[in-house]
Amino acid sequence: MRLRRLLPLTALAAAVVFSAGAAAPASAATAPTGYAGAAQHTHLLGGHSPSVAGPLVNATSRNWAGYAITSLSTPAATFTHVHGSWTQRPVTCPTSDAWAVFWVGFDGWTNGTVEQGGSSARCVNSTPVYQLWWEMFPTNAIQPVLTINAGDSVSADVTYNAATAQFTITVADATQHTSFTTTQTCAATLVCSRSSADWVVEDVGRFGSGDFFPLANYGQALMNNSVGSDDAGHSGSMTASSTWQRTRIQEQDTTTTYATTGATSTNGQNFAVTWAHQ
Question: What is the greatest pairwise CA distance in the chain?
Fold first, then answer.
């Protein structure tokens, strides 16, 4: 996938709304310069394509680890809500600028847009900085909003309102009792098709070079309460509907495994991603 030019931040029309709480707004001095983009596929295990039918498909990506669900219906349903929660893992810094992000959102598995929100663990001169953020890829970069702490309980929701054609992204820190909400629209030059719902731990892309920041060592990240809804009336965990296909994604390229993704729990809501390499 070729990296598309990101638009100026002045193109973003909606404001971010904060709730009261202890966490401080992210400092502009430490504003990230990376992006959490669409999946860069390496291959699907077994030689299949992303559209192969079946309840579970195993795949690999250079930058994603986690799960994506897509619709097997004809015509395909589109996703309207996605939710997930996790405890922000403390990270160690294998390099001074290592980075990892944890998020839920729509798109990016079978297309080139992503509408997302989550938490970030970024090494700044080898010191971890933890933040809540949102992004509408490729319209803008990662947008840090609130600073949090390792060990905080985080949840994220992305909801699409068909009546207004708007995406509402809410990320909350239950430990700090704070959150933010932003409402965004898809750029006029793009199609945000909501073709997948995603729960992802990602290696952040680096502008201008086509490669990635080293992956911060988060150990094992547990993604919980993974539920979604589509416009055909299906709702629940990743295994709730026979019309949904789950894709389990390992982060690897042709020579290196960066992170592995475990099986979902029996209720289809929980899974673990384990760091393997920077």
Answer: 50
Walk along the chain (278 residues) and give the pLDDT tens digit of each residue: 333 334 333 334 456 886 756 566 675 445 547 999 999 998 655 444 444 556 899 999 999 999 999 999 999 999 999 999 999 999 999 999 999 999 999 999 999 999 999 999 999 999 999 999 999 999 999 999 999 999 999 999 999 999 999 999 999 999 999 999 999 999 999 999 999 999 999 999 997 777 999 999 999 999 999 999 999 999 999 999 999 999 999 999 999 999 999 999 999 999 999 999 99
Evaluate the omega torsion of the peptide bond into residue 75 and state whether it is cis, within 30 degrees of 0: yes
Give CA–CA dist 56/252, Å, rounded.
Answer: 19
Task: Specify the amino acid at residue 100.
Answer: A
pTM beyond cutoff 0.85: yes
| Nearest alpha-carbon partner for 84 in 185, 201, 184, 176 | 201
Kindly tell me the burial class for residue 8, based on how many C-beta atoms sit within 10 Å of its own C-beta (0-12, 13-18, 19 or more). Answer: exposed
Distance in angstroms (rounded) separating the CA atoms of residues 176 and 155? 12
**Would you call 91 helix, strand, or coil by DSSP?**
coil
Tokens standing for 149?
A: 């702490």
Distance spanning both ends of the chain, measured CA to CA: 21
Q: Give the DSSP per-residue string, 156-202.
A: EEEEEETTTTEEEEEEEETTTTEEEEEEEE--TT------EEEEEEE
The Cα 237–Cα 111 span in angstroms is 23
Q: Which of 240, 217, 219 is nearest to 228 (CA)?
A: 240
User: How many angstroms separate the CA atoms of 200 and 63, rounded?
Assistant: 10
**Cis ω before 138 (30° cut-off from 0):** yes
